[in-house]
Design goal:
The complex is a heterodimer of chains A (490) and B (155). Chain A is built from three helices and 34 strands. By secondary structure, chain A is mainly β. Chain A has three domains: 123 residues, Immunoglobulin-like, CATH 2.60.40.420; 123 residues, Cupredoxins -  blue copper proteins (Immunoglobulin-like, Sandwich); 137 residues, Sandwich (Immunoglobulin-like). Chain A is globular and about 100 Å long. Classes of the chains: A mainly beta (490), B mainly alpha (155).
Chain lengths: 490, 155
């Protein structure tokens, strides 16, 4: 029989333990997301509004489903894309389980001319979790953005969805699923998009090749093959190689021969100089168009990613591999300055996007998660804008890893890095590597109404909370995440 | 409690051995993979699909170094407050401080690779401190027991 003080002590300890467990359970339970809408995210003020453009005042609202390309216009390019869960044949390597589009991965390259209306009919034949298509880098109308739970429901097995957009900007892009994207993109539900200019380009080239990089089951591939490629070209011929980094990490491009960076993320570089003895880096999700001139004799080798390369020139001769240069081309000071087409110095909105990391719970899952402006998902900022706003954003990486930041539906121009202003060609991107300790100042014009993801394209990082959104005033979405439609965009 | 204290100190010491073994295993695997024509880049690392012999060494090093050893070191210090032996707290504190330094060094290596030199050396300090903590508490326990027995006989 315990003594009275002993009994009191035991009861007190029991109450304390029960209380602690109860509070713990409550705290854990409060992080569970359940079904939610992005409309309910971003309680806190994310930025500063200038020029008096404040307050609610949108009399009318529009759903994302109404933000579409001209519905009466007949498509110039029409393609059916069928997604399947199946074994992918990897020429030169071993087959892996993954996802295909029209039976292959990468899927077919979609080619259009600037100004064309593209209509892609997407059919999900056997992707159990549902799937979508996101047009990475193409500034499509919001309804066609393909983000499950924001602009549409994931297309279930047997379902279809029609994507329509005008190919306004010539350049190199790609498409990929934006449903359970870390798994489906890694698994190969993707393909290339090339939009040829309406008029001949300023950066003249004679031939053109796509170099889509992807790692399948640990195998580095170039256009789906564990093989290098050769582009036959006569001496002096300039070949534009469109390198697409569909992987989760930065890729390097280099050559012993001089190369020029013709475009970044589908935007031509103005007055690109020859690059020698330097590598050029492509962020995850980014694209880089490089022109290589076939030499007078033999061929030139362009290394694309660490493992694959393309030779350009005489088909009969090879070119030896070259060592990866330790110096990196700084796109902040590459090419010749040119007008931006808007004034970034007097922004209507100013936002901070500060990336950090800390231990915590997201959706009841413990982990070392990414934070945005110090907050864990879903308490991340919502970047509210109004159509026509000039938006200024400061992206700061206070974490220890590089983050390829990708804004949907817009191209942003880099203004400065760590206080050093951009001094070369306007550096337009939709995917920007922000290294640990770096601060980028970027600007864009809010000219494409909708609700747009602004996330890290190392896709497992987005799963771990590195995703925020740009939301236009007056735009709503009827779609939800984690609901009956099974939408899980990340 | 002395037994528990000693057990946790030995867990830390054993953890250091696992750390050295796992990272050597992983680096050996990388050497072999590269020699056979494999390429390791950010694309492969972030794909989380690396499949070479030894790649298991990295997650083992991460889990044991980032979770098992630090948790054991914290537990050792907590247990030390219930152990009636001189220096138990001091040595648990030293072990925890060395472990904290080791983790900081480990997470900073990518920023400053030269810290790897200190990280390797400090691992030996963690090993020696934890082995000493484990042995001295058992020794003082034995000494204490002998003393009690001697006192009993004297009485």
């Amino acid at each position: 029989m315990p003594s009275r003080p002993d009994l009191v002590r035991r009861v007190a300890a029991g109450v304390a333990l029960t209380g602690a467990l109860g509070l713990g359970a409550l705290g854990w339970g409060s992080t569970l997301l359940g079904e939610y809408s992005v409309m309910d995210m971003g309680g806190g003020q994310a930025g500063h509004v200038h020029n008096g453009a404040t307050g609610p005042g949108a009399a009318s609202t529009v759903s994302v489903t109404g933000l579409i390309a001209d519905p009466l216009r007949a498509p110039d390019v029409r393609i059916e894309l069928v997604a399947r869960c199946q074994t992918i044949d990897i020429p030169g390597g071993r087959p892996v389980e993954g996802y295909t589009v029209n039976g292959t991965s990468p899927g077919p390259t979609i080619r259009a001319r600037q100004g064309d209306l593209v209509e892609a009919v997407f059919v999900n034949e056997s992707v159990a979790a549902g799937a979508t298509l996101h047009w990475h880098g193409v500034d499509v109308p919001n309804e066609a953005d393909g983000v499950a739970g924001i602009t549409q429901d994931a297309v279930p097995v047997g379902g279809r969805h029609v994507y329509r957009f005008t190919a306004d900007d010539a350049g190199t892009y790609w498409y990929h699923s934006h449903q359970v994207s870390h798994e489906q993109v890694g698994g190969g539900l993707l393909g290339a998009v090339v939009i040829d200019p309406a008029a001949p380009p300023s950066n003249q080239h004679d031939a053109d090749a796509v170099a889509l990089l992807h790692v399948y089951g640990g195998q580095h591939t170039l256009n789906g093959r564990v093989q290098d490629e050769h582009v036959p070209a006569g001496p002096g011929t300039a070949v534009r190689v469109r390198v697409i980094n569909t992987d989760q990490g930065t890729a390097a491009v280099w050559s012993a021969a001089p190369i020029r960076v013709a475009a970044t993320d589908g935007h031509d570089v103005n007055g690109p100089a020859a690059v020698e003895g330097r590598k050029v880096l492509i962020p995850a999700g980014g694209r880089l168009d490089v022109t290589v001139q076939a030499p007078a004799h033999g061929s030139a080798r362009l290394h694309v990613g660490g493992a694959r390369s393309i030779t350009i020139g005489d088909p009969g001769s090879g070119a030896p591999p070259s060592r990866q240069p330790s110096d990196t081309l700084d796109l902040l000071a590459y090419g010749e300055p040119a007008p931006l087409g808007f004034d970034p110095q007097s922004p209507d909105r100013t936002f901070d996007y500060v990336i950090g990391r800390r231990l915590g719970l997201i959706d009841g899952r413990p982990g070392n998660f990414w934070t945005i402006n110090g907050q864990l998902f879903p308490d991340v900022p919502m970047f509210h804008v109004r159509q026509g706003d000039v938006v200024h954003m400061r992206i700061v990486n206070e974490s220890g890893e590089v983050h390829p930041m990708h804004l949907h539906g817009h191209h942003v121009v880099v203004l400065s890095r760590d206080g050093i202003p951009a001094s070369g060609s306007p550096w337009w991107v939709d995917s920007l590597d922000v290294h640990p300790g770096e601060t980028y100042e970027i600007a864009f014009v809010a000219d494409n109404p909708g609700i747009w993801s602004d996330h890290c394209h190392t896709l497992p990082h987005a799963v771990d909370g590195l995703v925020a959104h740009v939301m236009y005033e007056g735009v709503t979405t009827p779609f939800t995440i984690n609901g009956g439609a099974g939408n899980q965009p990340e | 409690m002395r037994r528990t204290y000693s057990a946790f100190a030995w867990i830390i010491a054993g953890g250091v051995v696992v750390q050295a073994a796992s990272i050597a295993f992983a680096l050996g695997g990388i050497g072999r993979y590269v020699q056979d024509g494999g390429v390791i880049d950010k694309a492969l690392v972030e794909s989380r699909q690396a499949t070479f012999t030894g790649d298991l060494g990295f997650p083992i090093h991460g889990i044991v170094g980032g979770m098992v050893i630090p948790l054991a070191a914290v537990a050792l210090l907590i247990i030390a407050f219930f152990v009636k032996a001189r220096g138990a707290r001091k040595w648990a504190g030293i072990v925890l401080a060395l472990v904290a330094l080791q983790i900081t060094l480990g997470y900073s290596i990518v920023d400053m690779p030269y810290l790897g030199l200190v990280h390797g050396a400090n691992a030996l300090a963690v090993l020696l401190a934890s082995v000493y903590a484990a042995r001295r508490i058992r020794r003082s326990a034995t000494a204490g027991a002998e003393k009690t027995a001697a006192d009993a006989i004297a009485t």
